[in-house]
Amino acid sequence: MIASTAMRPRIGIARRRDALDGACAEAIAEAGGEPTWLGNEGPAEAALAAIEALLVPGGPDFLPPAPYPADVRFSPASQGRLALDRALLAGARAAGLPVLGVCYGMQLLAVASGGALHYHVPHDVAGALEHRSGDPAARHAVELLPGTRLSLLFAAREIAVNSRHHQAVSDPGAGLCVAARAADGVIEAVEAEGGLDAPFVVGVQWHPENLERAHRAALFGALVDACRRR
To answer: CB of 129 within 8 A of CB of 186?
Structure first.
């Protein structure tokens, strides 16, 4: 692991620079980190050696193992991309690096921990709310579970988040706990068990990089702080 400046720890983004709108990188920089694009090709070991934390941002779908209605469309991740993201995540966790997963990144975190997914929320969750809003300004409430890292970071029991996903975590997997739920019961965040005493491993289903400054500061600031504490 390389030494970074105390002021701006390097946060690796598991993607090429041109594959995102740049909001994640801007949020990292705003919080005091140095965004570092890791690309879509390996080896994972070389990428991990250059960073102090890993961000797995939003991305494509996980392909379901069962048939779904014909009108349900999936945009699955390529096998190469999925393999590299899995390797980056496994390496980061083995090294004790802080990890933040956003949308697809949260789902990957759960799957890699032995958890499971709802592959299409409207089909899999009875009475599900609208989780794939086409309105970028739309928000819905999520409950932050007491004692979780997220509830302490936001100092709140409920926050409003954006929502543009049709897949979701149904089982967070080993070593992770549910940190937030929507009103319909859909899991909206997971984290390492143990609250603030646990390593910084957090997954959120929403897109914090597109929310207001105070929200970005709470979450991305905590990621940068976790790097500095190491």
So the answer is: yes
Catalytic-labelled residue, pool 52, 120, 209, 227: 209
State how far the Cα of 174 lies from the Cα of 109, in Å rounded to an integer.
Answer: 10
Which of the following is catalytic: 103, 120, 131, 165? 103
pLDDT at 2 over 60: no
From CA 120, how far away is CA 33, in angstroms rounded?
34
Structure tokens at 35: 């965004």
Per the annotation, the verdict on 209 as an active-site residue is yes
Mean pLDDT of 96-107: 97
Q: Are residues 57 and 13 in contact, defined by beta-carbon separation less than 8 angstroms?
A: yes
| Per annotation, catalytic residue among 52, 207, 215, 227 | 207
What residue ranges do the domains of the chain occupy? 10-229
Pair 167, 108: CB distance under 8 Å: no
Strand partners, 191: 177, 202
Q: Is the pLDDT of residue 3 over 50?
A: no
Structural tokens at position 8? 């701006």
Structure tokens that stand for 63 in this block = 């392909």
Contacts of 20 (CB under 8 A, 6+ apart): 13, 57
- CATH code of domain 10-229: 3.40.50.880
Q: In the annotation, is 103 catalytic? A: yes
Say whether 177 is catalytic: no
pLDDT band for position 6 (50/70/90)? low
Q: Is the pTM of this model over 0.90?
A: yes
Per-residue model confidence (pLDDT) at position 127: 95
